[in-house]
Design a protein that fits this description.
23% strand; single chain; 227 residues; globular; alpha/beta; disordered N terminus; 4 helices; 4-stranded parallel sheet; 7-stranded mixed sheet; binds calcium ion
């Protein structure tokens, strides 16, 4: 990084402006937003691609605190084969349309809708409920409430429309357990999800923005990279 006197001066001046504007606008330090970044190929290091068929691959990260007002679950575009924009839906399984949605918060909590045999749902059963509704092939992510672990989990599927696709559990929300956790399923919104460029592209973008962008971003957000 060249240390050009004019660049240093320019950055300092802009930063001072940002800090002053922030102080006037907010009056106190803003809460720090977190971005949970999933930008590695989801089945990297597993045998799922070689032997496909509803394999739930481990390695999920734990998210103890999730701020619904500002935190983001970010998926690498190429790593997850995302060929279209993210389209959010929070709904019961019966209300999932056959196409057009690839980010789903599944509000259904029971795999068979029969409470007399217990309320039970795992990742494969959740994926089955979604696949039964969706007919348009394509990758996507969903969040469901796991009855055994008693918390929500974030899952990637290379094809939401089939019950034969492999699954990769990306994260578990360890701070959202029990009834409070089930109620919090309704708090997820479209703003909590994003598709992001791969690391190389990301680096180019940040480089394009320059040092100002990098410093500003670092000050206002924390990025948690999930392997
Ligand atoms: Ca049941």
């Amino acid at each position: 990084m060249p240390r050009h006197p004019l660049l240093t001066f320019g950055v300092s001046g802009v930063l001072a402006g940002v800090l002053a504007a922030g102080a006037f606008a907010v009056g106190s330090a803003p809460a720090q937003a977190a971005t949970f970044l999933f930008d590695r190929p989801p089945f990297e290091g597993s045998d799922a691609p070689a032997t496909p068929g509803r394999q739930v691959v481990g390695g999920e990260i734990s998210i103890p605190v999730f701020d619904f007002a500002q935190d983001v679950l970010a998926l690498g575009i190429a790593a997850h084969g995302l060929d279209r924009p993210l389209a959010f839906l929070s709904a019961e399984a019966a209300d999932i349309p056959p196409s057009g949605r690839n980010v789903i918060v599944l509000r259904t909590l029971d795999f068979d809708g029969d409470p007399t045999n217990g309320i039970s749902l795992n990742a494969g059963q959740a994926a089955n409920l979604i696949a039964a509704a969706i007919t348009d092939p394509g990758p996507g992510i969903f969040i469901y409430f796991n009855s055994g672990l008693n918390l929500p989990r974030l899952v990637f599927s290379p094809d939401l429309s089939t019950s034969a696709s492999d699954l990769k559990i990306l994260a578990r929300f360890t701070g959202l357990t029990g009834d409070a956790g089930r109620a919090a399923m309704g708090d997820f919104g479209a703003g909590n999800f994003a598709a992001v460029p791969e690391p190389a592209t990301w680096a180019m973008l940040v480089g394009g923005f320059g040092l100002v962008g990098g410093l500003a971003r670092r000050r206002t957000s924390a990025v948690v990279r999930a392997a």
